[in-house]
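Long-time lurker, first post. I've been practising inverse folding by hand and with some scripts of my own, and I keep getting stuck on stretches where the structure tokens seem ambiguous. Below is the full token string for one chain I'm working on. Before anyone asks, I'm not after the true native sequence, just a reasonable design that respects the backbone. If someone could post their per-position residues I'd love to compare against what I wrote down in my notebook.
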């Protein structure tokens, strides 16, 4: 959402974002993204992410790292690849319970992208994503990935990953 301000002194119409634009910042980013105005989309997503919006944190985290791992993207010239910052933003979103962020964060841990390779953490995040996804296809993907990771772990590591999942669930329930 934008507020239109008339600048009477210079006789022009100026638009500026609201000071407290977080409620609409993500939506404004989506609109700019759909118009392929990636510079403006990134600006809005940054505002929303800084205010704690998990969707904006996910979008920026995904764009910063994982999406660019497959090559040049339309937004790349405005947002250079940064796997570490991308992983941090995905962690913020994942910790708010956003399943897509949890699943991609698991993939990052599985492959050591922006974070250290850690199969226990990968198991944990795939497990949490599987519990949150609504789409059967996504649930099955996350559950299957978790089981593939489990095959690489000892029984003690699986138990540790499950303990971490339960601990996360208890914290998020509060």
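-- Answer (accepted) --
I ran through it position by position. Result:
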């Amino acid at each position: 959402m934008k507020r239109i301000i008339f600048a009477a002194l210079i006789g022009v119409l100026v638009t500026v974002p609201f000071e407290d634009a977080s409620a609409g910042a993500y939506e404004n980013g989506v609109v700019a993204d759909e118009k392929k105005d990636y510079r403006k989309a990134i600006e809005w997503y940054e505002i929303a992410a800084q205010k704690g919006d998990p969707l904006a944190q996910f979008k920026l985290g995904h764009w910063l790292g994982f999406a660019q791992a497959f090559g040049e993207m339309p937004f790349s010239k405005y947002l250079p690849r940064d796997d570490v910052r991308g992983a941090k933003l995905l962690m913020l979103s994942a910790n708010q319970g956003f399943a897509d962020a949890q699943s991609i964060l698991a993939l990052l841990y599985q492959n050591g992208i922006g974070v250290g390779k850690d199969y226990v953490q990968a198991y944990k995040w795939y497990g949490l994503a599987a519990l949150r996804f609504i789409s059967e296809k996504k649930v099955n993907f996350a559950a299957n990935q978790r089981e593939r990771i489990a095959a690489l772990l000892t029984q003690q590591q699986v138990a540790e990953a499950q303990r971490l999942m339960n601990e996360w669930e208890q914290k998020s329930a509060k």
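A couple of notes from the structure itself: The chain has two domains: 1-68, 97-174. The helical segments are 22-34, 38-50, 54-64, 83-94, 99-111, 119-132, 136-150, 155-173. Happy to go over any region you disagree with.
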